Amino acid sequence: MSKKILELKNVSKIYGSLKALADINLSVNAGDWLSIMGPSGSGKTTMINLIGCMDTPSTGSVILDGVDISKENAASLTRIRRDKIGLIFQQFHLISYLTAVENVMVAQYYHSMPDEEEAMEALEKVGLKERARHLPAQLSGGEQQRVCIARALINSPQILLGDEPTGTLDEENEGIVVDIFRRLHSEGVTIIVVTHDPEVGDVAQRKIILEHGKIVDDINQSLEKN
Amino acid sequence: MFWRMIIKTLVRQKSKMLMIAFTVILGVSLSTAMMNVMLGVGDKVNRELKVYGANITVRHKDAALMSDLYGLTEGLGVNDKFLYEEDILKLKTIFWGFNILDFAPILEGRAILSVKGRAGTAGEVSLAGTWTEKHAILSTGEELNTGLKSLRTWWEVEGEWLGEDDNNSVMVGKLLASKNKIRVGDAVTLTSNNGAVKNFIVKGIFNDGGGMDEKILMTLPAVQELMNLHGKISSIEVSALTTPDNDLARKAAQDPRSLSPDEYETWYCTAYVSAICHQIQEVIRDGVAKPVRQVAESEGTILNKTTLLMILITILSSIGSALAISNLITASVIERSQELGLLKALGAYNWQIALLVLIEVMLTGLAGGVIGYFLGIGFAQIIGQTVFGSYIEIARMVILIVAVILFFVTLLGSVPAIRYLMALKPTEVLHGK
User: Fold this and answer.
1) B300-316 pLDDT per residue, tens
2) Which pTM value belongs to this model?
3) Most buried pick, B141, B268, B301, B386, via CB within 10 A?
4) How far apart are CA A125 and CA A122, in angstroms?
């Protein structure tokens, strides 16, 4: 049986009078590929903020690799995020004046030490070695997202966390990104992806549906596919 | 990676960084100019103020006592007390001899005035014998030019000043000349109390605007001969460059013996008017040197106010720079908030991002500071030339002061931006807000 990498226990997040998440319980095992789906305002963003150590719950516990991050301060959350989470954004968020390889090396720099060779290898894994010296503005949307994936993977995180990673991509690039996820999943990387896109959500091993801050459905798609 | 990010940021944001550098250049150049002028201006302001005449008077100790006790400036016990002419040049041998710019001996006397071609006499008048333009050679071999002409720059003279050897000419005060209808070129006769009679030609009529206007000015040897007081003088007027008084100087002025050895050394080796007076008394036999308080205090007040004005300009320019830098850095950071928030999301601590921004600003500030410093030296020289007619000596300590001011101005200017950075949440970047 796989190790439990993430566990949310009775997690609620309240903003003033708004309950963004209500008594959520969720477990994710190492190597799982989970997609989180739901309509706007269902709590997806709040959940990804909590899992990505960018926020703490109002009540309940978020246990990441055995550590209850709900009790950690901002500096500890930064350290945990840096060491355990690889983030992929819908808008890519590459630094415009750095080349593709330098964008990957930024994540290395804040984690440990920049290593250009290693960064080049990460880019090679996403098929962008030839474009390593290009600035983001010289890359297509799909290529930029692949740089973003390489940056997220460079520090060997325990969870790859994607926030609408294909949200701004065309079908072809969406396919490329999904293929990369497939390969990473086969290599044992834990992937959690928030998405609106049913095609992306459906390729995951497991899918949860959020509505009004509650998990209304938890589908093991690998069983369905079998 | 750190430096690569900094260099690329500086290049990418060059217009903003140039604005910051320009602000720093303005602030630093102004501060540098003001501080260099402030540190080098003391002597120059003092020299400018010397047009207002002597600031120290040396008299015989008994005459000074009578003046202090009874307010007497002439009469028995005053007019019959003399200093020695041979001591005058010793003034330049004191510790602060270089600060003594000009001096002139005065020998007071009284005589009966008669104007040639007019019946009767004009009555008894006051005489003042002096050096008008004296060229002297000191015992050290040093040559100097001094005299009353340098101490009375405001005099309006009709005719001419007396020369060094004009022992047969006189200058007449305007009031006295007007009362007796004396004109330049007239012949006058002076008869002293001891019966000596001598004829003189009026070479000039001067307007002092004070008590001198009722006197006759003569060369020192002429009065000495007329009064039969060879080698004697009544007083010496001295114009010296002085440092404004402080508590130590005021304490010493009361009684130098009340000072501790360290205080005494500090006081003695500082050009306080009281220290210079003290040193003058050491070389002028029976002399008591006293500051002409009004002049000395005015000089100090003007110098202090000038210094204060320059300090205020420096402070205000620093505050202005800090505010301008603050606005520019904050604007820059807000513009880059997505990038900086991303760094936080990637695992950068707040201090790492603050350091990144601070180093960028400090490097820009340093470049601006170096340019501003040299520009400031140029401004200081322009001020020196236009206001004082001479170059301002560059004080090395200004580099340190400007560096410290620049550091703190940049640091303080960065505070709002750093506060903004600290509060920046990576989630705002993650969700593209």
Assistant:
1) 677 777 778 888 888 88
2) 0.63
3) B268
4) 5
